[in-house]
Design brief:
This protein has 200 residues and is α+β, with helices and mostly antiparallel strands. The protein has one domain: Peptide Deformylase, CATH 3.90.45. It has 3 helices and 8 strands. The protein has a 5-stranded antiparallel β-sheet with strand order 1-2-3-6-7. The longest helix is centred in the first third of the chain and has 22 residues. The protein is globular and about 55 Å long. It holds the Pfam family Pep_deformylase. Its EC number is 3.5.1.88. One of its GO terms (biological process) is translation. It comes from Stappia sediminis.
Amino acid sequence: MNDPIASILRFGDPRLKEVCEPVSRQSIETELAAEAEQLLRTVHAFRARYGWGRAIAAPQVGIMKRMIAMVLDGREHVLINPTMTWASEARAEVWDDCMSLPEIAVRVQRHYSVTVRFRRLDGREEAFEKADFSLSELLQHELDHLDGILMTDRMRPTSSIVAHENRELADMAKVRSKDPNGLEMFKAGASRPKVERAML
């Protein structure tokens, strides 16, 4: 059986910068089901090899459709035509990583909570309503992929690129240097910084 990880497009592939087309209601159900299964297999395989990874967007394996597959707490989810319909004013800075460039992590700023509406494979319409930060930052990363936006496009101007395994070392270095721009939660009225760290 072919290695699912081999199908993941790497940074620099021009397809990762393309805007994906919505999935039409006329799409063949068997085709969508097969593509969804491919995405889910890839998430499971990536996580087994690297020890992290919760989701992948269809364009990351060359399927130029607005579709996302996620594995959260052991449950599989496939989101068809996901749309962010609400975002909090509060934002947080977090380490962002990506299956298309798993060797590095960068700092990005994300909405602290979002609502994302989508369709399931069986046609049901559902939503993640005002999701917590862990899920919200993941959804925003994957939605970006559908619009050809990569984590490096969102990278904070003062942020450094670090090896994925050195994120905690970089956090500790910022704490020791008392960097006022480091590890900060951008929230209206927040008086103290808060450390946020998440993995895809």
